[in-house]
Design goal:
It contains 6 helices and 9 strands; from the N terminus they run αββββαββαβαβαβα. With about 270 residues, the protein is α/β, with parallel strands linked by helices. About 30% of the residues lie in helices and about 25% in strands. A 5-stranded mixed β-barrel has the order 5-8-7-6-9.
């Protein structure tokens, strides 16, 4: 893995020249529009990058975007990878390792997720304060590379408290319905049963999705401060279940995206 990360990083550096990104951004389902705010300097298709996974989800474009946003040099993943696509955890988190090797100092992550908390409604935003990992594997399983991080990384603050508080202030100042909560990450790809929604709420979850946590674990392993936000696209309340379609999830994500983008842009400017 170490050699693959090195060779992939060198390939990218040859194509972006002296551009050194400061912030990495991972964009979730239906949330790729932030790229339109970036003053683009370089675009690389995943299919052309050695050892890079290829997004198989219909609504994920599959491009690395390098450019300027709010005066910061950024690299944005327009399309991410999931366990349910058949990738293992090291493949899913490989891009985070590469972005760190390229020079990023902060990682921003977005996702579309379902509410487990009746106070959090469809169309709201939820800033992730903590998570529960119910994925089947861990990206740190296997040999540890000490150059990346310690064998047993601390996870007492997986999401940076300073960025969380600043983002909540930005949301309040702009009258954006925004919550702080716990994200539960499951394997997917099916959505949850009524009993599963109830269980996830009982164990402390406020929202559920199929991504984010593997990347956050690896970022913490490498000492990268993380900010993550969920766009709530559906509601998993077992007392009143409503069937959910992927088209509806994407539609709600796209409608809510401008509010998420505003928070991300202002937070980025404050770094």
């Amino acid at each position: 893995m170490f050699q693959n990360i090195y060779s992939t990083t060198e390939y990218i550096k040859k194509r972006i020249g002296d551009f050194e990104p400061e912030v990495g951004i991972i964009l979730g389902t239906g949330l790729g529009g932030l790229v339109n705010e970036i003053q683009v300097e370089h675009k690389l298709m995943y299919t052309n990058i050695p050892d890079f996974p290829i997004s198989t989800v219909e609504f994920h474009s599959g491009r690395l975007i390098f450019g300027m946003l709010q005066g910061k040099k950024v690299v944005a993943m327009q399309g991410r990878f999931h366990y349910y696509e058949g990738y293992d955890m090291k493949q899913i988190t490989f891009p985070v390792r590469v972005m760190k090797a390229l020079g990023i100092k902060h990682l921003f992550v977005s996702n579309a997720s379902g509410s487990l908390n009746p106070e959090i409604k469809k169309g709201d935003l939820m800033i992730i304060d903590d998570h529960i990992n119910l994925q089947h594997d861990n990206p740190l399983r296997g040999r540890n590379y000490d150059d990346f991080g310690p064998r047993f990384p601390d996870m007492s603050e997986p999401y940076n408290k300073g960025m969380i508080e600043k983002a909540l202030q930005i949301a309040a100042a702009n009258n954006i319905r925004c919550h702080k909560g716990v994200y539960v990450s499951v394997a997917g790809p099916n959505l949850e049963t009524r009993a599963e929604y109830k269980y996830l709420r009982i164990i402390g979850g406020d929202a559920v999705g199929m991504s984010t946590v593997p990347e956050v674990i690896v970022a913490n392993h490498m000492g990268l401060p993380v900010f993550a936000v969920s766009v709530i696209t559906d509601e998993g309340f077992p007392e009143n279940p409503v069937p959910v379609s992927v088209d509806e999830i994407v539609r709600v994500a796209q409608e809510s995206e401008p509010r998420m983008t505003l928070i991300l842009k202002e937070l980025l400017a404050s770094l």
